[in-house]
Amino acid sequence: MHRDTLSSVIVTKTDFIITASTDGNIKFWKKKEKGIEFVKNYKAHLLPIISLSQTNDGLYLASISDDKTIKIFDINNFDMINIISIDFSPSSLSWVKDPLSSAWLLFVGHKDSGLISRFTLDGTPTIPPFKIHSSTVVLIAFNNKYNTIISADDKGLFEYWEIKDNEPSLIPDGLPWKFKTQTDLYSFQKSKTIPFCLNFSR
């Protein structure tokens, strides 16, 4: 598949497989009845790709790299549709749907801090960088059912939050619990383990 180490693999709802490697390449593959078919390759970044993220509907892909750029792709057309230059080293990213406008927004963590920035599809920062964690955010994920963002840092601490009136708000309404002590969310922190992947069953 790749000449260098794979850093991310994504399978979309539209039956595409997208792979990224540490040499900056992103490859698109189409699932077939038997096997997969190569579609397109992008030399997307000059430095290693840190992470990929797709929208829940499988329409858009974003990638971040140590080269301080975010690349955005139209998945169904295999096109790179935007390049966002940033002034910080990214650590994590996730697409989040704005509940008011239904537009997709991109949340990007800053390496070496707990800051998170938010961008529109065209690369416009919508609010100033904000802090949920005290250390580097290594994971960000969006749960559409509960309209909730979940993030984790390099200390193993998880946070559940949402954006209300352009401000982060912890423990959104509608969750089946009120306090993190009612969950196992402190398990990683207690064992001094850093999570590296986060997905939802629904």
From TrEMBL:
Domain of life: Eukaryota
Swiss-Prot/TrEMBL WD repeat ranges: 1-30, 42-83, 130-171
Record keywords: Isomerase, WD repeat
Signal peptide region: none
PROSITE patterns per record: WD_REPEATS_2 (PS50082)
GO biological process: iron-sulfur cluster assembly
PANTHER family according to UniProt: CYTOSOLIC IRON-SULFUR PROTEIN ASSEMBLY PROTEIN CIAO1-RELATED, WD40 PROTEIN CIAO1
Protein's name according to its UniProt entry: Peptidyl-prolyl cis-trans isomerase cyp15
Species this chain originates from: Smittium culicis
Organism placement in taxonomy: Eukaryota, Fungi, Fungi incertae sedis, Zoopagomycota, Kickxellomycotina
